[in-house]
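Q: What structure does this chain adopt?
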Amino acid sequence: MHRKVHVRFGGESTVTCQTGSRGLPYDTNPAQMELLKNLIGNNHGSSFYVTGDDWQSIYAFTGASVSNILNFQQMFPGSKQFILDMNYRSTPQILKACLNLIKHNVKKIEKKLNTHNSDGDQVMILQASNEEDEALRIVNEVMDLAKEYLYRDMAILYRANNQSRVIEETLSREKIPYHIENGMTFYEKPEVKALLDYLRLIQDPHSPEGDDALKGILNIPNRYIGKRFINQLEEYADNQGNLYQVLKKMPVDVPYLRKNIREFTQLIDSLIKRKDITEPAEMILMIREALDYDNWITEDDIQRPDDNLIANINQLQMAASKYQTIPALLNYADSFKELNRKSEDGVSLMTIHKAKGLEFPIVFVIGFVDGVLPNCQGDVEEERRIAFVGISRAMKLLYLSYSTSYLGRAVKISPFLEEILGKK
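A:
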């Protein structure tokens, strides 16, 4: 369904509102509700209908409000409510898990979920010791399921984008094709790629790769250097050497630019001297601290609960800790540029928010850890609706996974998992 509003003025006005479109938020905010009220007005000849599901309202971070649907009949006295409770997607076992979970929300419209679908398997739980072990167990299941199903029949869903790294790495290691819904691997995320480009420049400032990296990071963080300056630098560099070498001797008339460039080259030169005695993870930490990088990437960021920028670069540093040299880390990160990740016929990887409105025969929802799902910063009922959306994407088989440690620390199992299993 697509968002649609139809208004006809005259002796009778008709308003039709439908919510829902792949890739767009489904939920409405208070301003949209006020718009609807104004469209209807006091005209008793008006008629309109809306469709929605309060159990799947998960876009509060965009300003959406579940109250729009919960309080709809109070706002429009005399309106009629029709509950569509027949589910054509999932097995009875998956629907039972969904109901077990959502019944713990207080703010909701009471309804049941019915289906004529045949019985299926019970919800399967995968326990792991850490994220790497969790990813391995999931991928082993994927390989086993691939004997009967296509890779494109499977989806791996997670609460936040930073959780994708270990899954991507494990799928790639096993040469299993996969597709990321937003088309961007973990190592291509802007905040991650910038740090890798700093490493590329530090590792080999006199190479074509160093030139490309320099162009990408010269204004990260903001040094008030635009494309015009980059073009001038490239023109000045013609037949005079690599860009970094030329940057250090190119005359710059604007005082603040000259100062910013001098500070940049001083930092890079100091890090170049340490590249052979510093491991990648430590070098990344030095860059973060020298640039006050963490504050910079979050300064103007609109916080999204499914994409924590600091968590992403922490994941990069964790990945870097496995490598002794900068070239080894860069070679590994570059391996994700292969076509493996772009296969539309591969396993789908996406956040739960991206998955809303979609369905797959087999769904893995990972990271059922307290603090992750539910997110420690989220409203618990919103978080429960997010988990509900995730598990209700499954048609035939549903896997839920968790680890007993996360980011190197012991963690508790998500309370949602016990609710799903009917233990609460």
